[in-house]
Design a protein that fits this description.
Layout: H1 2-31, H2 33-55, H3 58-69, H4 73-104, H5 109-122, H6 127-132, H7 136-157, H8 164-180, H9 183-189, H10 204-231, H11 234-270, H12 274-311, H13 318-325, H14 327-343, H15 349-374, H16 376-397, H17 404-407, H18 411-431, H19 436-456, H20 460-475
Length: about 475
């Protein structure tokens, strides 16, 4: 039950972290217009490269290392401060690199310096520690409060197309404050350590191993926006960003399992219980498959109507882009289980690195011809194909460690259920009057159709859900 509770906490925060800008984006898209939205997306894509240097693979590494030693408070305390020292030094190096970059980059300087607050915030991010000890309550509650405050600030202060810089500052400061609120709790969770016994550099090379996949991941997360801004227009970067925001909201419900399961699996690995590790993996893969198929088909079915209704006039290209990008929901869900929940806890860093590097290489190769030919939609197809290549590579890597038959046992049932749901909802979306009430009805119909189909096809997850409900009832 602890895993379920942590999953719900993490889902809650991940959804809130994306839903706040989604709530505000309906307002911001109209106030800042596509040009202002595009400037934010483009400049943020650039600052993310420096944030990547500052993070240095610490998110996954720190989470895993804390999980390994969390039953020994002294070792855990030493590990925390050693990792945090490295992170602070890397943030300073990243900021110095940014300052050098700004000596040569004369474009949109005020926006870029506003974005640099996000880089400062990285030094104070210790959410990886709470993930390692499986205490998601602290990060969720504190960051949720800050996110809500930032939403209020946007509605109060952002009033015209000239407020782009102020908008960037509000978002960045909310991230910084959210990270700072985590620090008061840390001193209650750690023992005192002597600085002379700390050896931070022993973590550097293992971090560097995980830094490479983060670089690769960042390539096809940010490079598309950067290249769209350079090759097409900054407005296209904004379109990509807004499509990506909605897809990432859906993905948060799925990938939250990765953050929760990584320390759980890592702890089981540390105890040598590989039978339990594989059992958790099969259940997790089945769960994300059951959830991601309807999310993929559902978002694709309503995207053409949802975008203009939500973002307003001028954002019509986002609809078809989102329909294309919805495919990555399933691909990232699967690669999250295989990579984050299996390869990383087993310390198979090289295989994990190779998989995301393959995706980055595919993305780089395809980006130029596809963006040149189809612009925004070319960038979307490049993203989709990249994510497919990551998942295929990881499946190839685990072929001798895991059973493909066990992984995909009920996958066809979820696919058929999702396809039937898509056909019905898409037909409703195209033929019925476009309104929020009608869209809500379409979502409700989609959920009912999918659930009924899964029950008819007797997917194993139905029995697991019944068992979980009965356990909760008996406990009460």
């Amino acid at each position: 039950m602890k895993v379920v509770k942590n999953y719900l906490y993490n889902v809650g925060y991940q959804v809130l972290a994306i839903i706040v800008p989604l709530i505000t984006s309906a307002y911001v898209s109209r106030v800042l217009r596509p040009e202002g939205v595009g400037v934010n997306a483009f400049t943020n894509s650039i600052i993310q490269y420096f944030i990547l240097i500052a993070n240095m693979g610490i998110g996954y590494y720190g989470n895993r290392q804390i999980a390994y030693v969390r039953e020994n408070k002294q070792k855990m305390s030493e590990a925390f401060w050693e990792i945090q020292i490295v992170k602070t030094i890397m943030t300073l190096i990243a900021f110095l690199s940014f300052e050098i970059f700004m000596l040569f980059y004369a474009r949109q300087t005020s926006y870029m310096w506003a974005q640099s607050i996000n880089l400062v915030a990285v030094a104070f991010d210790i959410s990886w520690f709470y993930a390692g000890v499986e205490n998601f309550r602290v990060t969720v509650l504190k960051n949720s409060f800050v996110k809500i405050l930032s939403m209020v600030a946007i509605f109060i202060f952002i009033k015209s197309p000239q407020d782009v810089t102020l908008y960037i500052i509000v978002l960045a400061i909310s991230t910084l404050i959210g990270n700072l609120t985590l620090w008061p709790n840390i001193f209650h969770d750690l023992s005192k350590v002597k600085v002379k016994y700390l050896d931070p550099w022993k973590h550097f090379l293992p971090m560097a191993e995980l830094f490479i996949p983060q670089i690769a991941t960042q390539v096809y997360v940010q490079l598309n926006k950067t290249m769209l801004g350079g090759m097409v227009s900054e407005t296209s970067s904004g379109y990509y960003q807004y499509s990506d925001n909605l897809v990432k909201l859906i993905l948060a419900l799925v990938t939250a399992t990765g953050t929760v399961m990584l320390p759980h699996v890592a702890n089981a690995v540390a105890k040598g219980n590989m039978k339990r590790v594989n059992k958790m993996l099969y259940k997790s893969f089945d769960f994300v498959s059951a959830v991601s198929y309807p999310m993929m088909f559902g978002l694709a079915a309503i995207s053409l109507t949802l975008v203009p209704k939500y973002y307003g006039p001028g954002y019509e290209p986002v609809g078809p882009a989102m329909m294309i990008e919805s495919i990555v929901i399933l691909m990232i869900a699967w690669s999250n289980v295989l990579g984050v929940q299996y390869l990383l806890p087993l310390n198979r860093n090289k295989e994990f690195t190779a998989s995301v590097t393959a995706g980055a290489v595919v993305n780089i190769i395809l980006n130029i011809p596809l963006i040149h030919t189809w612009g925004l939609y070319g960038a979307m197809w490049s993203t989709v194909i990249s994510e497919i290549s990551v998942t295929v590579y990881q499946l190839f890597v685990v072929r001798k460690m895991l059973s493909w038959k066990a992984l995909f046992k009920d996958s066809w049932k979820y696919f058929v259920s999702g396809l039937v749901m898509f056909a019905i909802v898409f037909a409703m979306n195209r033929k019925l009057t476009s309104s929020w009430l009608m869209m809500g009805l379409e979502v409700l119909v989609g959920i009912v159709v999918y659930c009924v189909m899964v029950i008819i096809l007797r997917a194993e997850i139905v029995g697991q859900a019944k068992k979980l409900v009965m356990t909760r009832i008996l406990k009460k």
